[in-house]
Amino acid sequence: xxxxxxxxxxxxxxxxxxxxxxxxxxxxxxxxxxxxxxxxxxxxxxxxxxxxxxxxxxxxxxxxxxxxxxxxxxxxxxxxxxxxxxxxxxxxxxxxxxxxxxxxxxxxxxxxxxxxxxxxxxxxxxxxxxxxxxxxxxxxxxxxxxxxxxxxxxxxxxxxxxxxxxxxxxxxxxxxxxxxxxxxxxx
Amino acid sequence: xxxxxxxxxxxxxxxxxxxxxxxxxxxxxxxxxxxxxxxxxxxxxxxxxxxxxxxxxxxxxxxxxxxxxxxxxxxxxxxxxxxxxxxxxxxxxxxxxxxxxxxxxxxxxxxxxxxxxxxxxxxxxxxxxxxxxxxxxxxxxxxxxxxxxxx
Lengths: 187, 151
Known about the structure:
The complex is a heterodimer.
Chain A: H1 2-28, E1 47-49, E2 57-59, E3 68-73, H2 78-92, E4 97-102, H3 107-117, E5 123-127, H4 131-135, E6 143-147, E7 153-158, H5 163-186
Chain B: H1 2-19, H2 30-42, H3 59-73, H4 78-89, H5 105-132, H6 136-150
Helix pairs in contact in B: 2-3
Protein backbone atom coordinates (compact mmCIF):
# COMPACT_ATOMS: atom_id res chain seq x y z
CA UNK A 1 0.00 0.00 0.00
CA UNK A 2 2.79 2.45 0.87
CA UNK A 3 4.39 1.73 -2.51
CA UNK A 4 1.18 2.81 -4.21
CA UNK A 5 0.97 5.92 -2.08
CA UNK A 6 4.42 7.05 -3.25
CA UNK A 7 3.42 6.44 -6.84
CA UNK A 8 0.24 8.47 -6.41
CA UNK A 9 2.26 11.28 -4.84
CA UNK A 10 4.79 11.33 -7.66
CA UNK A 11 2.48 11.03 -10.65
CA UNK A 12 1.24 14.66 -10.38
CA UNK A 13 4.84 15.82 -9.98
CA UNK A 14 5.87 13.91 -13.08
CA UNK A 15 2.93 15.36 -15.08
CA UNK A 16 3.81 18.83 -13.82
CA UNK A 17 7.46 18.45 -14.86
CA UNK A 18 6.53 17.25 -18.36
CA UNK A 19 4.10 20.16 -18.77
CA UNK A 20 6.70 22.70 -17.63
CA UNK A 21 9.16 21.39 -20.22
CA UNK A 22 6.56 21.38 -23.03
CA UNK A 23 5.22 24.84 -22.18
CA UNK A 24 8.70 26.36 -21.78
CA UNK A 25 9.62 25.07 -25.23
CA UNK A 26 6.44 26.61 -26.62
CA UNK A 27 7.38 29.89 -24.96
CA UNK A 28 10.74 29.95 -26.74
CA UNK A 29 9.45 29.08 -30.20
CA UNK A 30 8.11 31.68 -32.61
CA UNK A 31 4.49 30.91 -33.55
CA UNK A 32 4.90 32.92 -36.76
CA UNK A 33 7.51 30.50 -38.06
CA UNK A 34 5.95 27.73 -40.12
CA UNK A 35 7.63 24.49 -40.96
CA UNK A 36 8.27 24.25 -44.69
CA UNK A 37 6.55 21.41 -46.53
CA UNK A 38 9.30 21.57 -49.17
CA UNK A 39 12.06 20.04 -47.03
CA UNK A 40 13.44 16.95 -48.76
CA UNK A 41 11.52 17.67 -51.95
CA UNK A 42 12.83 18.87 -55.32
CA UNK A 43 12.24 22.45 -56.42
CA UNK A 44 8.91 22.47 -58.31
CA UNK A 45 9.07 22.95 -62.06
CA UNK A 46 8.91 26.57 -63.19
CA UNK A 47 9.71 29.01 -65.96
CA UNK A 48 10.68 32.49 -64.88
CA UNK A 49 12.17 35.44 -66.75
CA UNK A 50 15.53 36.89 -65.85
CA UNK A 51 15.22 40.10 -63.86
CA UNK A 52 17.64 42.03 -66.07
CA UNK A 53 16.72 40.43 -69.38
CA UNK A 54 13.01 39.52 -69.51
CA UNK A 55 13.44 37.66 -72.83
CA UNK A 56 15.60 35.03 -71.16
CA UNK A 57 13.56 32.30 -69.45
CA UNK A 58 15.06 30.14 -66.71
CA UNK A 59 13.66 26.83 -65.48
CA UNK A 60 14.19 24.73 -62.33
CA UNK A 61 17.45 23.44 -63.83
CA UNK A 62 19.23 26.64 -62.73
CA UNK A 63 18.59 25.67 -59.09
CA UNK A 64 20.67 22.50 -59.18
CA UNK A 65 24.23 21.44 -59.90
CA UNK A 66 25.72 22.85 -56.72
CA UNK A 67 24.63 23.82 -53.18
CA UNK A 68 23.10 27.28 -53.09
CA UNK A 69 20.82 29.68 -51.31
CA UNK A 70 17.59 30.88 -52.88
CA UNK A 71 16.74 34.25 -51.41
CA UNK A 72 13.16 35.52 -51.79
CA UNK A 73 13.07 39.32 -51.74
CA UNK A 74 11.20 42.43 -52.89
CA UNK A 75 11.69 46.16 -52.78
CA UNK A 76 8.48 46.58 -50.71
CA UNK A 77 10.01 44.46 -47.95
CA UNK A 78 11.89 46.47 -45.28
CA UNK A 79 13.54 43.40 -43.75
CA UNK A 80 15.01 42.60 -47.17
CA UNK A 81 16.80 45.94 -47.06
CA UNK A 82 18.06 45.09 -43.58
CA UNK A 83 19.61 41.81 -44.71
CA UNK A 84 20.90 43.03 -48.06
CA UNK A 85 24.34 44.23 -46.93
CA UNK A 86 24.94 40.92 -45.18
CA UNK A 87 23.99 39.02 -48.34
CA UNK A 88 26.55 41.17 -50.22
CA UNK A 89 29.13 40.13 -47.67
CA UNK A 90 28.26 36.43 -48.01
CA UNK A 91 28.47 36.71 -51.80
CA UNK A 92 31.95 38.25 -51.45
CA UNK A 93 32.94 35.23 -49.34
CA UNK A 94 31.92 33.01 -52.25
CA UNK A 95 28.47 31.88 -51.08
CA UNK A 96 26.35 31.08 -54.13
CA UNK A 97 23.03 32.92 -53.87
CA UNK A 98 20.18 33.05 -56.39
CA UNK A 99 17.66 35.86 -56.02
CA UNK A 100 13.93 35.35 -56.44
CA UNK A 101 12.28 38.72 -56.81
CA UNK A 102 8.81 38.16 -55.33
CA UNK A 103 5.75 40.12 -56.54
CA UNK A 104 7.64 43.36 -56.83
CA UNK A 105 6.06 46.67 -57.80
CA UNK A 106 8.05 46.95 -61.02
CA UNK A 107 11.06 45.56 -62.80
CA UNK A 108 12.70 48.99 -62.90
CA UNK A 109 12.38 49.39 -59.14
CA UNK A 110 13.97 46.00 -58.49
CA UNK A 111 16.87 46.67 -60.87
CA UNK A 112 17.37 50.09 -59.32
CA UNK A 113 17.55 48.46 -55.87
CA UNK A 114 20.29 46.08 -57.02
CA UNK A 115 22.20 48.89 -58.74
CA UNK A 116 22.22 51.08 -55.64
CA UNK A 117 22.53 48.47 -52.85
CA UNK A 118 24.67 45.95 -54.72
CA UNK A 119 23.80 42.63 -56.36
CA UNK A 120 24.76 39.58 -54.26
CA UNK A 121 22.97 37.18 -56.63
CA UNK A 122 24.61 34.90 -59.19
CA UNK A 123 21.27 34.81 -60.99
CA UNK A 124 18.15 36.93 -60.69
CA UNK A 125 14.72 35.39 -61.22
CA UNK A 126 11.58 37.49 -61.37
CA UNK A 127 8.32 36.05 -60.06
CA UNK A 128 5.87 38.83 -60.78
CA UNK A 129 2.68 36.81 -60.19
CA UNK A 130 4.06 35.01 -57.13
CA UNK A 131 3.04 31.59 -58.48
CA UNK A 132 6.49 30.02 -58.07
CA UNK A 133 6.76 31.45 -54.56
CA UNK A 134 3.33 29.98 -53.80
CA UNK A 135 4.54 26.58 -55.04
CA UNK A 136 7.49 26.94 -52.66
CA UNK A 137 5.16 27.76 -49.75
CA UNK A 138 6.52 31.29 -49.37
CA UNK A 139 4.30 33.34 -47.05
CA UNK A 140 6.34 36.48 -46.66
CA UNK A 141 9.67 38.03 -47.51
CA UNK A 142 12.50 37.57 -46.92
CA UNK A 143 12.77 33.81 -46.94
CA UNK A 144 15.92 31.87 -47.75
CA UNK A 145 15.95 28.28 -49.01
CA UNK A 146 19.01 26.04 -48.83
CA UNK A 147 19.16 23.80 -51.92
CA UNK A 148 21.57 20.91 -52.47
CA UNK A 149 23.33 20.01 -55.71
CA UNK A 150 20.45 17.73 -56.76
CA UNK A 151 18.00 20.62 -56.49
CA UNK A 152 16.43 19.26 -53.29
CA UNK A 153 15.32 21.79 -50.66
CA UNK A 154 17.18 21.05 -47.44
CA UNK A 155 16.19 23.94 -45.20
CA UNK A 156 14.19 27.15 -45.11
CA UNK A 157 14.92 30.22 -43.04
CA UNK A 158 12.08 32.72 -42.50
CA UNK A 159 13.16 36.30 -41.80
CA UNK A 160 16.41 38.13 -42.37
CA UNK A 161 19.79 36.45 -42.75
CA UNK A 162 22.14 38.09 -40.27
CA UNK A 163 25.49 37.12 -38.71
CA UNK A 164 23.78 35.21 -35.87
CA UNK A 165 21.51 33.23 -38.21
CA UNK A 166 24.38 32.50 -40.58
CA UNK A 167 26.85 31.39 -37.90
CA UNK A 168 24.43 29.27 -35.90
CA UNK A 169 21.97 27.99 -38.45
CA UNK A 170 22.33 28.48 -42.19
CA UNK A 171 26.12 28.68 -42.45
CA UNK A 172 26.97 25.26 -40.94
CA UNK A 173 24.25 23.60 -43.05
CA UNK A 174 25.55 25.27 -46.22
CA UNK A 175 29.17 24.37 -45.38
CA UNK A 176 28.18 20.74 -44.81
CA UNK A 177 26.53 20.57 -48.25
CA UNK A 178 29.60 22.25 -49.76
CA UNK A 179 31.93 19.66 -48.21
CA UNK A 180 29.81 16.81 -49.57
CA UNK A 181 29.69 18.48 -52.97
CA UNK A 182 33.43 19.10 -53.11
CA UNK A 183 34.31 15.55 -52.09
CA UNK A 184 31.97 14.22 -54.79
CA UNK A 185 33.54 16.57 -57.33
CA UNK A 186 37.03 15.27 -56.56
CA UNK A 187 36.07 11.66 -57.23
CA UNK B 1 -30.82 56.27 -24.96
CA UNK B 2 -32.66 56.36 -28.26
CA UNK B 3 -29.52 57.61 -30.01
CA UNK B 4 -27.53 54.80 -28.41
CA UNK B 5 -30.05 52.18 -29.57
CA UNK B 6 -30.05 53.67 -33.04
CA UNK B 7 -26.25 53.51 -33.25
CA UNK B 8 -26.24 49.91 -32.02
CA UNK B 9 -28.79 49.07 -34.69
CA UNK B 10 -26.70 50.85 -37.31
CA UNK B 11 -23.60 48.87 -36.30
CA UNK B 12 -25.58 45.63 -36.44
CA UNK B 13 -26.81 46.49 -39.92
CA UNK B 14 -23.37 47.54 -41.20
CA UNK B 15 -21.39 44.71 -39.58
CA UNK B 16 -22.12 42.08 -42.25
CA UNK B 17 -21.02 44.59 -44.89
CA UNK B 18 -17.66 45.12 -43.16
CA UNK B 19 -17.24 41.36 -42.97
CA UNK B 20 -17.88 40.94 -46.69
CA UNK B 21 -15.08 40.10 -49.10
CA UNK B 22 -12.61 42.90 -49.65
CA UNK B 23 -12.57 42.38 -53.40
CA UNK B 24 -15.74 41.14 -55.06
CA UNK B 25 -15.27 38.02 -57.14
CA UNK B 26 -17.68 37.44 -60.02
CA UNK B 27 -19.19 33.95 -60.02
CA UNK B 28 -21.21 32.12 -62.64
CA UNK B 29 -23.55 30.48 -60.15
CA UNK B 30 -24.45 30.21 -56.45
CA UNK B 31 -22.71 26.89 -56.10
CA UNK B 32 -19.34 28.45 -56.96
CA UNK B 33 -20.01 31.36 -54.61
CA UNK B 34 -20.85 29.00 -51.75
CA UNK B 35 -17.83 26.82 -52.43
CA UNK B 36 -15.56 29.87 -52.45
CA UNK B 37 -17.06 31.16 -49.20
CA UNK B 38 -16.82 27.76 -47.53
CA UNK B 39 -13.16 27.35 -48.55
CA UNK B 40 -11.95 30.84 -47.69
CA UNK B 41 -13.50 30.48 -44.24
CA UNK B 42 -11.88 27.09 -43.73
CA UNK B 43 -8.43 28.06 -45.02
CA UNK B 44 -6.13 29.81 -42.60
CA UNK B 45 -3.86 32.73 -43.43
CA UNK B 46 -0.23 31.50 -43.02
CA UNK B 47 1.11 34.95 -42.19
CA UNK B 48 -1.50 35.84 -39.56
CA UNK B 49 -2.08 34.50 -36.12
CA UNK B 50 -5.44 32.78 -36.26
CA UNK B 51 -7.40 34.40 -39.07
CA UNK B 52 -8.99 32.76 -42.07
CA UNK B 53 -8.15 34.00 -45.55
CA UNK B 54 -11.65 35.46 -46.00
CA UNK B 55 -11.12 37.91 -43.13
CA UNK B 56 -7.47 38.80 -43.52
CA UNK B 57 -6.02 41.84 -45.29
CA UNK B 58 -2.55 40.28 -45.47
CA UNK B 59 -1.01 40.07 -48.95
CA UNK B 60 -0.62 36.31 -48.76
CA UNK B 61 -4.29 35.93 -47.75
CA UNK B 62 -5.31 37.83 -50.88
CA UNK B 63 -3.01 35.63 -53.00
CA UNK B 64 -4.57 32.50 -51.53
CA UNK B 65 -8.09 33.92 -52.07
CA UNK B 66 -7.20 34.61 -55.71
CA UNK B 67 -5.83 31.09 -56.06
CA UNK B 68 -8.93 29.61 -54.42
CA UNK B 69 -11.14 31.65 -56.78
CA UNK B 70 -9.10 30.52 -59.79
CA UNK B 71 -9.43 26.87 -58.75
CA UNK B 72 -13.15 27.17 -57.93
CA UNK B 73 -13.76 28.67 -61.39
CA UNK B 74 -11.73 25.85 -62.92
CA UNK B 75 -14.20 23.41 -61.37
CA UNK B 76 -11.88 21.88 -58.78
CA UNK B 77 -13.39 20.11 -55.79
CA UNK B 78 -13.04 21.26 -52.15
CA UNK B 79 -10.69 18.39 -51.48
CA UNK B 80 -8.44 19.21 -54.44
CA UNK B 81 -8.17 22.86 -53.41
CA UNK B 82 -7.44 22.10 -49.73
CA UNK B 83 -4.87 19.46 -50.76
CA UNK B 84 -3.20 22.02 -53.03
CA UNK B 85 -2.86 24.49 -50.15
CA UNK B 86 -1.76 21.86 -47.61
CA UNK B 87 0.94 20.61 -50.01
CA UNK B 88 2.43 24.12 -49.98
CA UNK B 89 1.71 25.46 -46.50
CA UNK B 90 1.23 22.35 -44.37
CA UNK B 91 -1.67 21.39 -42.09
CA UNK B 92 -1.41 24.88 -40.55
CA UNK B 93 -3.32 26.27 -43.55
CA UNK B 94 -6.60 24.50 -42.79
CA UNK B 95 -8.88 24.81 -39.78
CA UNK B 96 -10.13 21.29 -40.50
CA UNK B 97 -6.94 19.27 -40.22
CA UNK B 98 -6.76 16.10 -42.29
CA UNK B 99 -6.24 12.79 -40.53
CA UNK B 100 -2.52 11.99 -40.71
CA UNK B 101 -0.11 10.32 -38.31
CA UNK B 102 0.93 13.64 -36.77
CA UNK B 103 -2.60 15.09 -36.51
CA UNK B 104 -4.23 11.86 -35.28
CA UNK B 105 -3.57 12.99 -31.69
CA UNK B 106 -6.53 15.37 -32.11
CA UNK B 107 -8.82 12.35 -32.48
CA UNK B 108 -7.41 9.83 -30.00
CA UNK B 109 -6.23 12.15 -27.20
CA UNK B 110 -9.74 13.15 -25.98
CA UNK B 111 -10.87 9.49 -26.05
CA UNK B 112 -7.75 8.50 -24.11
CA UNK B 113 -8.35 11.17 -21.46
CA UNK B 114 -11.97 10.00 -21.03
CA UNK B 115 -10.80 6.37 -20.73
CA UNK B 116 -8.21 7.29 -18.09
CA UNK B 117 -10.88 9.22 -16.18
CA UNK B 118 -13.26 6.26 -16.32
CA UNK B 119 -10.49 3.94 -15.11
CA UNK B 120 -9.75 6.19 -12.14
CA UNK B 121 -13.45 6.45 -11.26
CA UNK B 122 -13.99 2.69 -11.44
CA UNK B 123 -10.93 1.88 -9.34
CA UNK B 124 -11.96 4.47 -6.72
CA UNK B 125 -15.51 3.07 -6.57
CA UNK B 126 -14.16 -0.49 -6.19
CA UNK B 127 -11.83 0.48 -3.39
CA UNK B 128 -14.67 2.16 -1.50
CA UNK B 129 -16.81 -1.01 -1.77
CA UNK B 130 -13.91 -3.13 -0.49
CA UNK B 131 -13.48 -0.88 2.51
CA UNK B 132 -17.14 -1.49 3.44
CA UNK B 133 -16.61 -5.22 3.99
CA UNK B 134 -14.80 -6.12 7.23
CA UNK B 135 -12.03 -8.61 7.66
CA UNK B 136 -12.48 -11.54 10.04
CA UNK B 137 -10.33 -9.79 12.66
CA UNK B 138 -12.36 -6.59 12.37
CA UNK B 139 -15.66 -8.52 12.67
CA UNK B 140 -14.50 -10.10 15.94
CA UNK B 141 -13.37 -6.73 17.24
CA UNK B 142 -16.74 -5.26 16.28
CA UNK B 143 -18.59 -8.04 18.06
CA UNK B 144 -16.40 -7.45 21.09
CA UNK B 145 -17.18 -3.76 21.07
CA UNK B 146 -20.91 -4.32 20.57
CA UNK B 147 -20.86 -6.99 23.29
CA UNK B 148 -19.10 -4.51 25.57
CA UNK B 149 -21.84 -1.95 24.96
CA UNK B 150 -24.51 -4.37 26.15
CA UNK B 151 -22.75 -4.81 29.48
